[in-house]
Design brief:
Number of helices: 4
Helix content: 25-40%
Radius of gyration: 21 Å
Shape: flat
Order of helices and strands: HHHH
Strand content: under 5%
Distance between the termini: 61 Å
Length: 104
């Protein structure tokens, strides 16, 4: 690592509890030290990747335009990255629960 400060800026940081100034001020060296001292960090042996498989999504996805209530969309977005995948999962769960039932 170079020892330089690594800064990653996001265009739209939602309100949260993260102290972004403190995070932005961390050097690569300090980040590496934190990772090394974290008891939850797992060292992955290169042999572990020998059995790795690439998994494809179970279903094809189609881009669409859908209108959602603003508060609903904000709530999903506030959960962080992957909000569209979570919306898809909620819709899939509804679909699976109601598939094959007559439409009221």
């Amino acid at each position: 690592m170079s020892g330089k400060v690594t800064i990653r800026r996001l265009a739209d940081r939602r309100a949260g509890k993260t102290d972004w100034k403190r995070v932005d001020a961390l050097s690569d060296r300090r980040i590496a030290q934190s990772i090394k001292s974290d008891p939850d960090t797992i060292e992955v042996d290169p042999d572990w990747f020998g059995n790795a498989m690439r998994l494809w999504p179970a279903h094809e996805k189609e881009p669409i335009t859908v209108r959602l209530d603003t508060d609903l969309l904000d709530w999903f977005r506030d959960q962080g990255r992957g909000y569209q995948t979570r919306i898809n999962a909620v819709l899939r769960a509804y679909y699976e629960a109601h598939r094959g039932r007559p439409v009221p």
